[in-house]
Fold each of these.
Amino acid sequence: MKKVRFLIGVLLTMALAAEAQNQADGVKALEYENYATAKRIFRSLSVNNPTDPMNFYYLGNAYSSLGNIDSARIAFNAGTQADPKNISNYIGLGRTYLDQNNTQQAQQYFDKAKSLTGTKDINMYVLLANAYTNSAHPDYNMSANLLNKAIEYTNKNADVYWELGNAYEGLNKSGDAVNAYERAVELNPGMAKAYTRIGVIWRNARRGELSDESFKKAIAADPNFPPAYREQAELFHAIGQDDKARASFEKYRSLADKDDNLEYRYGVFLFLTNKYQDALNVFNDLKNRMTNPILYRLLAYSNYEVGNYPEGLRQMKEFFLEMDPAKILPSDYEYLGKLELKTGSEDKAFGGISEAILRDSSKYYLEDTIATYLYKQKRYAEAGDHYMLKISKMPKNAPFKEVASSYFQAGKAYYFGKKYASSDSVFAKLSNLSPDWPISYLFRARNQLYIDSLDTARSKAFPYYQMFVSKAFADSNTFRKELTEAYQYLGNYNAFNRSYGSSLYYFGKVISLDPNNSEVAATIKEIRDSYKQQTGPPIVCTRDSSGYQIPAIINGNNMNCVLDPLTLGISVSEQGSTRYFGGEGNGGASMVSILKVGERSLKNVPVAMKTQQSSEIALGADVLNRMNIVVDYPSSSLLQR
């Protein structure tokens, strides 16, 4: 018996609570965008107090916001019967016809409302502007004109400025909208919805700090205002703070109406924050209750992201069957193409992806999807073509890193596809874009080896390997394998051309990076053995931080020259030019009359000035080679043959 009494007490309490809800509660529910709650409150109020026309007006607004035009029209008609002289419901009826794009019928109701009041009725301007702004076929200019007319009569009505901000947003006049909203909160500091719209405008302008500040003001004005948390969640997502975004959205869920629309929003939010399986769970639950074709889109997208490709393709095809063709997005073709690709329908996939790019040029990056697929299929040349197609579609302000990466992928694909000339052309462009990146020169060298099978003799790869070494030698850990390749080529090239000093230098570099390279070790031994029958004693070199110091006599002056295998002849710094040649060594203008190393001498050796050279004077290995002298690096001595 006690349990029965307790249950009756609970039910009575609930009933009294429901009855206690008044018009202000319903209006707040409308402002909170809790339209189902607003509908419930005003249905009850219109039954309990059928003589108040505003109950019907607000009920009609709730129905309109839920997309139920017929029910809205019934409510507004009932409101005109409750009080034929109240303008609100006539304006509401006019809006229902605007929703159906019947402007003539709408105007008749608006004119009826105007006939019942004076031209200075501020409420009339607010209600008319609201109808024009929130209609399914809005007229933002009309709305703004009406509100500016109202301001001629008073500039102290917060609702006027609120509606004006809405109209300016619709006209993409963001600055004017912010000014209107700021005036609204100046007049009504508790207007959380105005702060929220300011936050949205700043968020769309990518002014994150100002946006966050506005949302905080909205929440301070009304901690229970759901849209502020929803929009704040979108801000946090936009700036990459998804944990905060989820917390804000959960707060929004706790304050918003618990219905399928909320769950739909939640699923979309989960998808946007990369919680694809959670989003899929929400959408799968909704599909039994919602018939919106957009749900098929979201199911398809989510299934793709979690790897359920056949199911995703089925949902995507269902979406294309159900959706109005005019409302199909480029991303729909993108996902259709990617799903076709994952399920083995290559031709259809390429068609879908190409259609997405055609409809939205900013999706040029999708060429990567096709190119990557072809590359994995070892269809390298075709992959290269699609990478180049991507480059051709890039905007002029595309990020440098993306442009350079695309050229690299294209050049590499052409190289493995044996289209060496195409690859070389691509890497030539890349080396111009990024002159200090070593890999472009490496691939240009490799391409030359395949373009000309006699390259060792013709030396087309030589300058590119040299350039690669000059860019990469400082980072031998990263480029160990590639430097070994380059040094070995340069060693072989110099050995082929009997420039044994340079050859030994490069082969020594190979051994330093690859101590177990028996082929190079054997070549070094062969060259050194050829110098065993010396015509003179070994000449001892010294070695310091700048390299090997070669004792030499230049124009009768004793000096030590740094060995530089990359120098042809002799090179000097500006200081060395002044000191040894009286400043004449400008750009190779000077000549050394006599160069003597050990017992060997050479006349008319060219001198070039290198402004960036750290040592005063450097001697090229080619000069020693012409004297039949080589550096024996292990013993730090010069061998004469």
Amino acid sequence: YQDIQLHQLSVDKEVTEENRYGQGSDRLAWFWRVNNGHDLKEDVWMDEFYRVNWLKAKARWQRWEEELRLVQHEMGWTVSWFKYRMGEWDQRYQQATKPGHQAYAHRQVLLWGRFALDAENSFKDKLIVVT
């Protein structure tokens, strides 16, 4: 067996801070992974210990997967919002009777169109298409 180091004797942050930042890179200390096979009761406890850690890791993975889907949808919603605003200003441009109002509305159409184009280009290959 290896010598147990002081940092390996700390309380697992999974217990004290369940949703803390950076828990995705945690690893069990080596002595939790040793299987000496002598005590059947201890093996049952270790099986449960591994099962709980596996379930926590699975839950973490599922949360990240859900977050990824949400961000991808938010990208699509952002593009849709920019296009919607462009359409609103285009209607105002069409309805404007004064040259100053037309110029301002046209500028807004170009601005929101540019936002939509930039967002589409930035999100390319990362975007879930929202219709």
